[in-house]
Amino acid sequence: MNVRDSEHMIAELNRKEPYELTQNLDEADLIIINTCSVREKPVAKLFSEIGVFNKHKKPGAKIGVAGCTASHLGKDIIKRAPSVDFVIGARNVSKITQVVDKKHAVEIDTDYDESTYAFGEYRTNPFKAMVNISIGCDKSCTFCIVPATRGDEISIPSDLLVQEITKAVGTGAKEIMLLGQNVNNYGRRFGAVEEKIDFTGLLRKISKIEGLERIRFTSPHPLHMDDAFLEEFASNPKICKQIHVPLQSGSTSLLKAMKRGYTKENFLDRCEKIRRLCPEATISTDIIVGFPGESEEDFEDTMDVLERVRFEQLFSFKYSPRPHTEAADFEAQIDNNIAGERLTRLQKRHTEILDEVMDAQLGKVHTVYFDELKPGGRVSGRSDDGKLVFVEGSEELLGKISDIKITKTSRGALDGVLV
Length: 419
Ligand code: SAH
Known about the structure:
The protein is α/β, with parallel strands linked by helices. 34% of the residues lie in helices and 21% in strands.
């Protein structure tokens, strides 16, 4: 989502005047740091980075801070680092051209409605496009700062989405990634425009776009995984068979304390349904360890879900108390060493599972969309189920979807040959 926000800002700036991206700090006239704030570490990193930029930037170059940390710290960023020229929140990226020339401007309004905003076109990768289908988040997960930084959840009208995707397809994107904090809650509320459509309806509508070959989305919420959605996921040939099902914890009592809205059993039931309807699909997840009150037994429940679902991909984090969240004030905060030990155990077991999953790919044939040229005469792409695949080849493979036989496996990627 942050990568997409950066693309939006680049597109908007380019509408105003031509900008070019640079990897050389001493060349840049404008430096924008697009921040995250789900955990504390990136916030600390922001201020050290501002220091580095101050030291090495070209004289007169501007520094802007964007994203979620900008949203929740606002003008305090300028107080602490007066060299920062402007601050622009995660929900206000369309206003970048209004702040870029205004000394110490701060735009962090979370009521600001970007849901009908037509952004200019800019893509990091010409072969695929990211498309926001909703902004904000209406959940009240007790650990999460996102609703405070990105504001209420509003869906973007489906006709606008079809327009945007059609445009992207027309300029070479065969694959799109639909983005939202809870994509499968799409259609619950719109801004100015009234519409009756849900996420399953949106998937069907988008699938009709000619030339669009692959649809991905992130992230769905386990609570909104109704049967119709899972059936559409399994049966629609344009939908890539990779699904993120963020668990957070395997313990029903912790899930309740987190206000996730589902139990361990509900979660397992949804994953079993995915495995049954679509055995070729890969399931990824997010897990937080050391949430306040997490007992050894709670953690065992998380390990149990890992064992049963065998997630192909895992993003795991130590709980980090965040401002504007309920859990930050919970009493039973967990000792850092215990949380660290649990994280290590979880990741170690997951690595074993992942090695088994990847080893089993040897000799299999995957359909891969090639989108990146790599050094050493190689090209990479993603298989339908989301695995990174390399083959020997050059430019002519880019933008092609081909069947690849896997000849070598490793934990992070697969090597193969065209069949
Ligand atoms: N909307 C998504 C979450 C986006 S944040 C969802 O509901 O699943 C991405 C991930 O960061 C979360 O899934 C969670 O695992 C992690 N995260 C969020 N807040 C956190 C916190 N306070 N400490 C540790 N990890 C956190």
